[in-house]
Amino acid sequence: MTPFSYRCTDCGRTYARDAVRYLCSVCGEAYRPGIPLLGVLEAVFDYEAIHRDFDRANPDWNLFCPVEPEFHPPIPVGNTPLGRVDRLGAELGLSSLWVKNDGLNPSGSLKDRASFLVVAEARRLGMELIVAASTGNAASALAAVCASTSTRALIFVPEKAPKAKLVQMVLYGAQVVPIQGTYDDAFALSLEYTAKRGGLNRNTAYHPLTIEGKKTVSLEIWAQLGFQVPEAILVSVGDGVILGGVHKGFVDLQRAGLIDRLPRLIGVQAETSDAIHRYVESGVYSDATNPTTRADSISVTCPSNAHGARRAIEESQGLTLTVTDEEILEAQAQLAGRTGIFTEPAGATAMAGLTKLQGGPNRITGSGPVVILATGHGLKDVEAPLSRISIPLAVPPVLEALTL
Ligand SMILES: *Cc1c(COP(=O)(O)O)cnc(C)c1O
Ligand SMILES: [Zn+2]
Questions:
Q1: Could you read off the pLDDT of 34-83 as tens digits, one per residue?
Q2: What CA–CA distance (Å, rounded) separates 385 from 295?
Q3: Which ligand 1 atom sits closest to the C-alpha of 205?
Q4: Is the distance from the beta carbon of residue 238 to the nearest atom of ligand 1 less than 6 Å?
Q5: Does ligand 1 have an atom closer than 6 angstroms to the CB of 162?
Q6: How do the domains of the chain map onto residue ranges?
Q7: What CATH number has the domain spanning 82-105+211-386?
């Protein structure tokens, strides 16, 4: 671990590590559930120390980690494969296309990275209960990581979350409270719970270490590409915290003088859950009016990290776009059928965005590596693809029955 302090991403005030827990004491005062978070904190490290101590031949990733290794949960998280997908790349006019398969985390999504670090923090603080609101994956991730420790997880989740995700949470032993309402309702309730009844709140971006946990995917991508900065990274966007985390990983590398530029970040949202896209395009924030997308993990009315996501796009000279559910399910099938990687609809949203981008005026033309983040495993929601495929009927086990 390297010494760090927290800095408010809105006003720039800095805080000693234990002087603050969630939001900036000043900007956070103006926050109330139902608007994007204000006063989100970022960890600012002693970057000279990182520069001095980081050794590419033997990388110590704990230099970038804001919780001491002795508190890390025992369950291994991250270090997921980054694979080159030439067959798909050729179809999209890209000579160096890669997929980072974060569905291969223990609970099947990138959210394990954030939960890992928040559970580590709870252990450091001696707190025994962690509370979270989730569309499904953050909760499964928290439940899985907690299961490897003696920390308890209390989870508020929309009752309509896909079955497999609910099964995961319950089986991992979390206390699960399905909410008769939306993810946004669950988010507000969990804040009220920790404020009045206690526990450490893991809500995305509200706890600053969720962003720090998610940034590890960028450190890995950089190393897996032979310490090369990709040309672009495609990220599915709901609350905008994965996007913010991907950005922070490269910002940390840049501040430490280990890279000299950021990759272009391309944020992809579902057409009905497009608050961040419209915010980036117009500069004016307004909620998504009716997020009905099948990509449940990115179905958000009011994205908690809307401000941070917009900054990430602007600072990386990236862009955002939206895709329809049909494009998402088509991309899911294409990714599965061309690469062997089966990712849930929210994961395939990044791929759908790339397909759309390559067919238009903003297409990526450079020859540098382009990375699709596959954020969650396909088996988490088999109902979604079943709406457009059919399983062949059974035949008698005799050769004559086969027309193949
Ligand atoms: C949470 C999630 C996302 C979106 O991340 P945000 O931080 O909410 O933008 C994308 N894909 C999957 C599989 C997720 O679980
Ligand atoms: Zn502030």
A1: 999 999 999 999 999 999 999 999 999 999 999 999 999 999 999 999 99
A2: 11
A3: 7
A4: yes
A5: no
A6: 82-105+211-386
A7: 3.40.50.1100
